Amino acid sequence: MPALWRFALVLSRSRDTADDLVQATCVRALERAGQYEPGTRLDRWLFSILHSIWVNEVRSRKVRQGSGVIDAELALIFDGRQAIETNILAAQMLAAIGKLPEPQREAVLLVYAEGFSYQEAATFLGIPIGTIMSRLAAARGRLAELNDNSGDGDGRN
User: Domain RNA polymerase sigma factor 70 region 4 type, which positions (predicted)?
Assistant: First the structure.
């Protein structure tokens, strides 16, 4: 469930929406339990359901009004037990990832944060593996560009 929630948070950029997405995913999984193929990875099936629900929600929002999202920094969970430096770095990384286009955010979360293989991420999202590779390469380039332009005072532009 934590991995599913993190995926929902990266997609939606909202804690409340992430909670709703995970709940809707669980409800849909229970409703369609007969469609689950025993012996396959349950997480793969749940991630696919969540992604499908999210895509449908985005389409609905566009039709209704548009979306209201929060900054990625506001979505960071601070538990007080980790070092402050770790939380600052995590907030900076989350903010940078939040600036990526949604397809790149999805790929980064699935492969780098959740540790899924390129093929697994491609399967979750219903796209070719080459597209995952392309999105990750573009995301790495964009994150490097954002880091270079962060104004950290080392003289880089």
Answer: 92-143
